[in-house]
């Protein structure tokens, strides 16, 4: 079997999606940690793999694959191991509906909040001239804008308020959907759960008034059920920052 190499940051958001998919499928891969906080994703060595300078990326033999959700589907189809897509056409539609909703609408809002409270405050401690040079090396102009906002703490109040609104709505939608069935998109665990967990694992800690055992019992049941899986435990153990250690909130019995 051709060698698989995954270029990823923490088991979180986009990086965590292919990491966990590979682990659930039992695919051996070489892990190449890209330290996002050191701007490794904009260095020439990585740009040779993904010229957009975003993570994750995966190589499978001579194939180069980017876009985390598309990589998840590729991994599910290219390798043997447990099937992570349901068989039924409507269930498959639901998986894709949720993944699109999360990737395009909900994840950017989580990300803006994460960048304003975690990424920005860590990175802005460094020398301003060094940071400006690092920003200038970013290939995508829209990412230069986001990094500047994170570093200088200039996301506007309106932007943060809109992200908070979307997160609150997303929590309610997840709670309602998980009241209908055991897993997010079908009766079997799969790609929608992997995608959703990477986004939602820390919500009980970051949004305790919106997500707790009283208000969102279905969401909490699902988060704990995903976290109980051996592949998830193994994946999160690869985390190096305090951000991913927040997953420990799911060890508690009551939130
Ligand atoms: N649509 C892409 C988005 C990838 C993405 O935005 N990754 C973030 C990390 S979660 C990143 O690379 N941020 C660093 C940067 O933009 O410099 C995917 O799903 O793979």
From TrEMBL:
Key word Transferase present: yes
Domain GST N-terminal: where?
2-83
Mind telling me which InterPro entries this protein's record contains?
Glutathione-S-Trfase_C-like, Glutathione-S-Trfase_C_sf, Glutathione_S-Trfase, Glutathione_S-Trfase_N, GST_C, Thioredoxin-like_sf
**GST C-terminal domain segment(s):** 88-247
What keywords is this UniProt entry annotated with?
Transferase
State which residue ranges cross the membrane: none
Q: Which PROSITE patterns match?
A: GST_CTER, GST_NTER
Q: Which GO terms describe its molecular function?
A: transferase activity
Q: Report the sequence similarity comment from the record.
A: Belongs to the GST superfamily.
Under which name does UniProt file this protein?
A: Glutathione S-transferase/GST-like protein
Organism for this UniProt entry: Novosphingobium mathurense
